[in-house]
Design a protein that fits this description.
The chain has 102 residues and is of the alpha+beta class. It has 2 helices and 3 strands.
């Protein structure tokens, strides 16, 4: 005679709830990382356009001025992200369009 050795008293509901919470947290981290990466690429493209990547042409409107940290809202909290800075030839900082639209 075969005997079952697996207990039927496994709390399946709790396991499902725990698995769902873990999956939701992983998906949230994935979304955050993907969003930060996409925004960083957009800001880098915005910084290249007016500064023309160290070009010395007449069409250049600004020059690179290092990087700074900014904060983004995410799920009711704030996430810190590094962004490029541009300074116009008048000495004032120029905002990146992708940073203003965030």
């Amino acid at each position: 005679m075969n005997r079952l050795i697996t207990s039927t008293a496994i709390p399946m509901r709790e396991l499902k709830i725990e698995a769902l919470a873990s999956m939701s947290a992983s998906f949230e981290r994935f979304c955050l990382a993907s969003g930060i990466e996409a925004l960083a690429e957009m800001m880098e493209a915005d910084a290249r356009t007016p500064a023309a990547a160290h070009a010395r042409g007449k069409g250049r409107q600004a020059h690179r001025w290092g990087k700074t940290k900014g904060k983004l809202g995410f799920h009711g909290g704030k996430v810190e992200i590094e962004r490029p800075r541009l300074r116009g030839f008048d000495g004032k900082e120029q905002a990146l369009p992708s940073w203003k639209r965030r």
